Amino acid sequence: MTAGHAFWETALALSVSFILGAIIGLERQYRQRTAGLRTNVLVAVGAAAFVDLGVRMGGNDGSVRVIAYVVSGIGFLGAGVIMKDGGQVRGLNTAATLWSTAAVGAFSGSGLTGEAMLVALFILAGNTLLRPLVEFIDRRPLNPETTEALYRMHVICHPENVSTARDLLADELEHHHYPIQDIETLSEGDDYIELAALLVPTSADPKELDIVSEHIARSPDVISATWSVSTTN
């Protein structure tokens, strides 16, 4: 292969990765995601450039080694966009998009333009066509009997009764065979304190939890007791 021919093949690979990365990035930019247009373009072009260099310097064996490094390297980049916001983890979809965009670049750098377009199409479909389905599922009422989730028993009491309320909370849950992972203080003020016991089970009977909360609420040392369930940590 002549130097001129190799140059134009590289130019084609980088152009394809640039265009496909831009298409993926436009959708991300429109939705105001952390990794938008420029990030996805750079990931695609960078992956294509490294793979193309591996092909030119080491043939097929060289490209395979470079692709392996690209996959692991993008993993570190994706970890940088994942953030814990209070009780929720954000950025997982953005990290997955970056990882997939690198695959588009790797296909382009390997000269597999059609495959690169196909991967880009599936990435766009995952980020757009599946969105209504995700929103429909998220809007459905949570079924505590069948959903693996986090269960908490909440108790509100006066500050001077915290120790008694904590013991009562642990005793009642243990009596009903609900082991506790931890008891945390959710809010603290001059007039009252809210405690929450995080249960170990990922499924529970709502009727049993109602009974436990009613028993706890009868104590003169407790202002109120209730329970909650959530799907996020």
UniProtKB/TrEMBL annotation:
Cell compartments where the protein resides: Cell inner membrane; Cell membrane
Domain of life assignment: Bacteria
Membrane topology of this protein: Multi-pass membrane protein
GO MF annotations in UniProt: methyltransferase activity
Record Gene3D superfamilies: 3.30.70.260
UniProt keywords, alphabetically: Cell inner membrane, Cell membrane, Membrane, Methyltransferase, Transferase, Transmembrane, Transmembrane helix
GO CC annotation terms, alphabetical: plasma membrane
Ranges where the MgtC-like C-terminal domain occurs: 151-227
Entry's family note: Belongs to the MgtC/SapB family.
Purpose of the protein: Virulence factor required for growth in low Mg(2+) medium and for intramacrophage survival. May be involved in regulating membrane potential by activating Na(+)/K(+)-ATPase.
Protein name: Protein MgtC
Organism this protein belongs to: Komagataeibacter swingsii
